[in-house]
UniProtKB/TrEMBL annotation:
Belongs to the LysR transcriptional regulatory family. GO terms for cellular component: protein-DNA complex. InterPro entries: LysR_HTH_N, LysR_subst-bd, WH-like_DNA-bd_sf, WH_DNA-bd_sf. Residues 5-62 form the HTH lysR-type domain. It comes from Geodermatophilus africanus. Keywords: DNA-binding, Transcription, Transcription regulation. It holds the Pfam family LysR_substrate. This is DNA-binding transcriptional regulator, LysR family. One of its GO terms (molecular function) is DNA binding.
Amino acid sequence: MDVTLDLVKLRTLVEVRDTGSMTAAAAALGYTTGAVSQQMAALQRTVRAGLFTQVGRRVQLTDAGSLLADHAVELLALARRTEQALAGLPGQPRARVLVGVFGTAAAALLPRALVRVRERCPGVRLRSMEVDVDDAASAVAAGRVDLAFGVDYPQAPIPRAPDVELLVLVTERFAVAVPAGGPAREGPSSLHDFAGDAWVLPPEHTAYGRAVRMACRRADFEPRVDHSVTDTASTLALVAAGLGVAPVTDLMLTLRREGLATVPLTERVERTLVLAHRREPAPQPGVRAVVDAIRASVPGG
């Protein structure tokens, strides 16, 4: 069978498989749902096979779809390695580097890194796309991005991939965010001092949600979660409105400080911001330039 495969459509196929729906894949890739549907219809015509079945509200790949998606991951990774190898030829780095980001990283670190890359390596085109913070290593391993920000917790570490390295950027210690103007607290407090408060936390299935709950359990209480929220900016807005307390770090506070006060903790509750990249092949000059720019953009890193 003479088939010409389009890498753009293959990337979309992998995203549909990973997210389970064309709507979610469209959101992750910055397309409309209609555009994803058209791409997948064209891909099915190209390979002359059905690639999807509908299971409830989710899309499930057929045997042919799963086979194609597995090979697509390899093809996309090869295409990335080829681009980076060409970018590593002598002279000023010239490359397209795609970085996976989440909210805090995008707001606090990416703008400074973009400026540094533009000033020092004008031949490097740095792009970004949102990646679930818990999927940083897997996104790099699958070739969806060249680099990805992630967060490692001692209580809920990122699943390791043999071909992905996690570069430590900075380790932050958590405090507790409370509404400004509330009852004054003198000096550092224990987590248990907040046992009677309402909390704003991510769901327990997230690494962050698990890590905070485990820290609270070690302090001998179960947090009462009145608001289950993943987005950091929304979390801080709810705290500022007096609707609960939440863990917070200095980088998180770059998203919002208005209406908030912070209480240091006697316990060491920490998180480590990491940057995931492939071990082999070694990062080429374009990727290395972006890594260096990101490291230089981390306060205290």
